[in-house]
Amino acid sequence: MKKVRAKVSGLVQGVWFRATTRDKARELGLHGYVRNLANGNVEFVAEGEDAKVDELVEWAKKGPPMANVQDVKVDVLEYNNEYSDFEIAY
Questions:
Q1: Which residue in 36, 61, 64, 81 could disulfide with 20, CB within 3.0 to 4.6 Å?
Q2: Is residue 26 annotated as part of the catalytic site, yes or no?
Q3: What does pLDDT average to over the chain?
Q4: Mean pLDDT of 60-86
């Protein structure tokens, strides 16, 4: 099992990035959250099966159709089964 924090930069706010990330994460059976950051980036924390977490990170490199992702920085965190769903955080 794996847990990551990813920070996504580029044109990622106002383009349905949070909603589509949540939907993709739930589709993959992952838990965690996604939120907008004050600097215009989007951050998500995702935990679950290694391959599924990796798949979400790869998806985030493109994001939804209107997004223009420039970079995705990923930190691997200690897996601790902290979340029970995948939500949009505010």
A1: 64
A2: no
A3: 98
A4: 97
Q: What is the CA radius of gyration of the chain?
A: 12
Q: At what angle do helices 17-27 and 50-60 cross, to 10 degrees?
A: 160
Say which of 5, 18, 26, 80 is annotated catalytic.
Answer: 18
Residue 13 structural domain: 2-88
Tokens read off for 82 = 């902290």
- Which CATH number belongs to the domain containing residue 72 in this structure? 3.30.70.100
Identify the band that residue 85 occupies on the pLDDT scale cut at 50, 70 and 90. Answer: very high
| Catalytically annotated residue among 22, 26, 36, 41 | 36
**Sequence-separated (6 or more) residues with CB below 8 Å from residue 85:** 26, 31
Per the structure, the count of domains in the chain is: 1
Q: Tell me which residue has tokens 């383009």.
A: 15
The answer to whether the predicted template modeling score (pTM) of the entire model surpasses 0.90 is yes
11 to 3, 15, 33, 62, 67: CA distances (angstroms):
25, 8, 19, 11, 5
